[in-house]
Every structure is written in C-alpha cells, then in structure tokens.
Amino acid sequence: EILSGLVGSEMCIRDSISTGQDGLILIGGPQIMKGYLKMPEKTAEVIELIDGYRWYRSGDKGHLDKDGFLTIVDRYSRFAKIGGEMVSLTTVEEEILDVYNNTNLEIAATCLPDQRKGEKIVILATAEINKDELKILLTKAKINPLHHPSKVLIVEEIPKLGSGKTDFGATKKIALVNDQQ
Fold it and tell me: Which helix (H) or strand (E) holds 172?
C-alpha cells in the first residue's frame, strides 16, 4: 500500500499485505539520495529499487490505517533476532514493567550476540530484579519464552540522551562490557 501525503513524497509499508498491518516504512520521492559516496555496501543497506523507483528504508516499523494515516510503532533496530524470530525490545520492556507493576522501576532492553540463538536479550534495571523470579513472573503471565531476558544488570541509572530519551548505544555498551567480564 502506498501513501502520498507529503508533496513529492510517497510512503510504502514493506511486507504489509493489508491496511493496518505493520511492516518496514519505505519513503520515496525526488529527495531520496542516490547513495553514499564510494560506499556501495552502505547504500545497498538503505536504498531499494522497486520497479525502477528508489525507496529509502527508514528503519521504522509502522502501518497505514484506512484513512491513510501513518502510525510508527517501533524501530527495527530495537529488535533482537532470537532463533530466527524477530523480538521487539520495546515489547519486552513493556511486558516486564507490566508483570512488576512497579512505577519506580526503570528498565532498558538491549541485545547481544549469542552463539546458540543468534542474539540474547539483556535488561538493565534501576531496581533489584532477580532473573529467576522474573522468569517465573513472565511464565505465569504467559509471556513468550523468547521474550525472557538472558541476563539482568542492575545499574544506578539508565543512560539518557540530552533529550531525556534512553541512550540505546550506551545501554548496549554497558551490556557488552558486562558480558565480557
């Protein structure tokens, strides 16, 4: 399905079969770059030709509703690929906060390489969370076992950007450093 709402721009939801179904948001139009200078591999990661038309892969996951409004629901970079399945780290965070029902708890999910399953989920938390207790709570809540974190790291604070949003790059670095110890 293609939306043309911005003058000279079009948006398309990749892998969407019907209205309202989530997929990768593609953006097309004359403003789309030809590519990165002398970097064909990087260009191939973000530019896609469909029937001779250039599309930019936004990295955002979303859908178009019946009125043509675009809703962005997540970032594909905020997914872990576990055993071939794409797991939303945002969903994992929401599920954990739901089972704890703790308004003072702040968490951030990230993923790290895993030799057996491709990637594993690591949670940073600002309050004491016992991994075994968390697993029991998630199982009782019938949360998909792929969403269960492999590791829980207790931190003083979740890294933030100047905007106040979670700094996912710094979060991943903390998880990596801890994983190598």
Answer: helix 168-179
